[in-house]
Every structure is written in structure tokens, then in C-alpha cells.
């Protein structure tokens, strides 16, 4: 199955990112597109791959593992886990992903580190920050980021790369920028306290707020709807 809209929507998403980087006076290629393929079939991932996309984000573990099996013949896909994870499900993430964006407690981090196979490079991780302080949302609170990052930076199976957030929805560029600016400032603080850790990643910005995120330094924007179209389910 191929999707007739995908080539145009992927091209449009690339243009959006390119324009946002220009508006932010940042170099081209200073941020990349993470194609969020949750609920979408493996055939669409395959098609996006033929169009040059390599980084894919999945939220639901079993669904992701099924698609990975279907796409075992496709070379060079970089899989990112971006959904909530129960601590009894860490092994599959440690074994089957290159990146994990939603680490928000030490217990999960320790398990991922212990379970990372020794023949693979360390698992790249971002700490998920509850930047809008929503009671219902996962993520470490901003004031607890430094302590958690310090502990995670020492785990041998992990490579701490940066921070990730999903701010509360806001409309208007200025309102959208504020939480992204806070996340950037948290990363800048960590870069000072952990000078030996390659903290180069701000995973922020989705289909509705990519421009605001890029203005505040996003390096990885997670686009689902804008690339693959609306989802039937969450
Ligand atoms: C679904 C999802 C996205 C993509 O959202 P869109 O609004 O469809 O671009 C990005 N990040 C996370 C963590 C998601 O769960």
C-alpha cells in the first residue's frame, strides 16, 4: 500500500522546517524531522523511507515491534521510542530502539541501562520534562531535572543526549514559545553542570507548534499528523 498524499506532505514538512530554521537564523540541518508513525502502517514507513526519511518515532511498544519485524529488510531506520513506558517493558526498548525520549525516573533509566545489549552502542536518551507542570502528565518536574540528569549521565548503557517535552497546548507564537524557552534554559544549565556529557538534543515541537520550537532551539521536531495525516485513534 502506498499513500498518495505522503510525498507531498513530507516535502511540505521539510519545507516548513527549512523555513523555520531560516526565520530562527539557524543553519540548515541544525534540526531534523522525527516522523511519528504511531497508528500508521509499516507500508507508510517504508514509503517515507524511500523518500529519504530515516528517523521514526513510535509510542506503543507492541505496535512498534510488529512494524519493526515487517520492516526488517529496510536498512538504516533509526527507531525512537517516544511513548510512556511501564518499567516491566524496558527490555524491549533497550533491545530494539536507538533512542528513548520519555525517561522520567531513575528506575526506568537503570533498567534500560542494565538491559541494553553490549553489542549495541549506548541507548540515546532524553529526559521528559513536565514543562507545563500538568498534574495529569508524565515527565520530571523542572526543578528535579538536574539531579536526575546527574545520576543518569553515569549509567554505562545510556547516553544522555538532552531533554524532551510536550507542553500544554497554546495558541499564538509567543505563548507557544514560552515553555520551549524554559526547556532550552534547562538544557543550557545542564550543559554547564555536565560538561563531559554530549547534551545536544532538544526534542520539542509537533505539527501544531514546530515554528515556535525551532525558534527556541529544537533539534528534533516530532511530526506525526503533518507527515502521515490525521490518526483514527490516539
Ligand atoms: C503523537 C506524538 C507526536 C506527533 O504529534 P502530531 O501532532 O501528530 O504531530 C509527537 N510527539 C509525541 C510524544 C507524540 O505522542
TrEMBL record:
It holds the Pfam family Ala_racemase_N. The modification N6-(pyridoxal phosphate)lysine is found at residue 38. Its cofactor is pyridoxal 5'-phosphate. Residues 26-231 form the Alanine racemase N-terminal domain. The keyword ATP-binding does not apply. Keywords: Pyridoxal phosphate. Belongs to the pyridoxal phosphate-binding protein YggS/PROSC family. Pyridoxal 5'-phosphate (PLP)-binding protein, which is involved in PLP homeostasis. NCBIfam families: YggS family pyridoxal phosphate-dependent enzyme. This is Pyridoxal phosphate homeostasis protein. The lineage of its organism: Bacteria, Pseudomonadati, Pseudomonadota, Gammaproteobacteria, Oceanospirillales.
Amino acid at each position: 500500500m502506498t499513500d498518495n498524499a505522503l510525498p507531498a506532505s513530507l516535502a511540505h514538512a521539510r519545507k516548513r522546517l527549512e523555513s523555520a530554521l531560516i526565520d530562527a537564523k539557524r543553519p540548515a540541518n541544525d534540526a531534523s524531522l522525527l516522523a511519528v508513525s504511531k497508528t500508521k502502517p509499516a507500508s507508510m514507513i517504508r514509503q517515507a523511507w524511500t523518500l529519504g526519511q530515516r528517523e521514526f518515532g513510535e509510542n506503543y511498544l507492541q505496535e512498534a515491534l510488529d512494524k519493526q519485524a515487517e520492516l526488517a529488510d529496510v536498512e538504516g531506520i533509526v527507531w525512537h521510542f517516544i511513548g510512556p513506558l511501564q518499567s516491566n517493558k524496558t527490555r524491549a526498548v533497550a533491545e530494539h530502539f536507538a533512542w528513548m525520549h520519555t525517561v522520567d525516573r531513575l528506575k526506568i533509566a537503570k533498567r534500560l541501562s542494565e538491559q541494553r545489549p553490549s553489542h549495541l552502542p549506548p541507548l540515546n536518551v532524553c529526559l521528559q520534562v513536565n514543562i507545563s507542570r500538568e498534574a495529569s502528565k508524565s515527565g520530571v518536574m523542572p526543578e528535579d531535572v538536574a539531579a536526575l540528569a546527574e545520576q543518569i549521565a553515569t549509567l554505562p548503557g545510556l547516553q544522555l543526549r538532552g531533554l524532551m517535552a510536550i507542553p500544554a497546548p497554546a495558541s499564538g507564537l509567543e505563548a507557544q514559545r514560552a515553555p520551549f524557552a524554559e526547556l532550552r534554559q534547562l538544557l543550557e544549565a545542564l550543559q554547564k553542570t555536565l560538561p563531559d556529557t554530549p547534551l545536544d538534543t532538544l526534542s520539542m515541537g509537533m505539527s501544531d507548534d514546530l515554528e515556535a520550537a525551532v525558534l527556541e532551539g529544537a533539534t528534533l521536531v516530532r511530526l506525526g499528523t503533518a507527515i502521515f495525516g490525521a490518526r483514527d485513534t490516539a
